[in-house]
């Protein structure tokens, strides 16, 4: 049995590898500068960012239940990490906080805190994806023309270099490097046109872009189009295995009783978990196979990843939308692509750092611009418009809030707007009614909704007490409701007394505190138990018949 399952696993892996392998290269190219930029902005060693990306790819993806999510250092944590390193006074003490945060995430996974991810409205998640797409485009345009003042991967509206998204665009116009601009434009053309040729699709377009960009960069040397060192990728170059081992840093466990370590760890665990759950929900939305990722397992995997990262000298990680969406758009199908991208990051650091440092940031900006456009595709705006204002308004508000603040703040604002529409719809959909005229007046039948909460109390109370005088027969039917709040029942009972006192006929049907809702888990277990008993009985019957023969 074990051999059969193992054989099937490798067969499926081989089948998906032709999709996952090229996708992993794309994710690697996107992740490489992001890991370096986020580490630099966080005040951590450059190697710490790469190490976090390696662990996010190899370790987290191995334990995660998500097929397309990619983990690594997150831009949303840079301010917290920078402040935490300064507050704790030593990078080794900060690493201890990362280890503790990872252990906290393990606990969150065990207690099934991942269920929070199921309560994000779709309009907000889709708005977040489009908002990230807009941010990618706005933030990468300066890099596309060779203005690299902000770190690669910056997402917040207010940048660490005292600029904001729009001032950076304005300043970029006055500092255009035409060599970088040519590389970016040609890269975009290849990314758009290359997949249209079926015979060429065997080679990933981003890989072609990188080779072309490196070639052009070398050709531009000594001319007016030459790129400076600031326009290229910069990863640490190690000359020996011993030097490579020297890049690792280990936590200072003597600070375990430092209360600031625990406060920072809790902050990191909560924010990293929220960003991960948001990313997971978003990736499931764009998964072409519409798979649902297990949120609790993801928190557990993130806990293992952050614990490992802290122990070896890395910075905190989350599941990241930018890398994950690049994975989806590149055609990735399973966790293999995320794991492979981690392996490529490791090999790049150990074996070919000099070659990697020849890659212009402008071509990587082109890859992200292409990804950003797919996330903020105009078609998504059209789809949300046709769904109605209760979906379109939270969608647009989330986009604007994400662009002008940051990811978590923007999603929080979007959630508030979505909640307003949810409450509004809940209040207006508490019941249906039907009026039938009779000889003495009219009869009205109220049919309550499936779920009637205290939020419906005011609407039901107003509807009952505002009935016209000619209504002399009243039926309130709760037989289709799975739940009726006690406050609503009290309102209905009070109205019953009021109606009887006025000489009206009133009938209450199925107005009870709570309906017995079947426990799905227990129901499923009973079915499986009955199936097992039936199989056993059938087997015994067959054996009896055989013996009689």
From TrEMBL:
Keyword flag Thylakoid: no
Pfam families, per the entry: Sulfate_transp (PF00916)
The keyword Mitochondrion belongs to this UniProt entry's keyword annotation: no
Primary location class: membrane
Keyword set, alphabetical order: Membrane, Transmembrane, Transmembrane helix
Family annotation (PROSITE patterns): STAS
Compartmental location: Membrane
Lineage: Bacteria, Pseudomonadati, Bacteroidota, Sphingobacteriia, Sphingobacteriales
Protein name in the entry: SulP family inorganic anion transporter
Superkingdom of the organism of origin: Bacteria
Membrane topology annotation: Multi-pass membrane protein
Organism: Parapedobacter deserti
Transmembrane residue ranges: 21-40, 46-63, 70-88, 94-111, 118-138, 175-195, 202-220, 262-280, 343-372, 392-423
Family annotation (PANTHER family): SULFATE TRANSPORTER
Domain STAS: 446-511
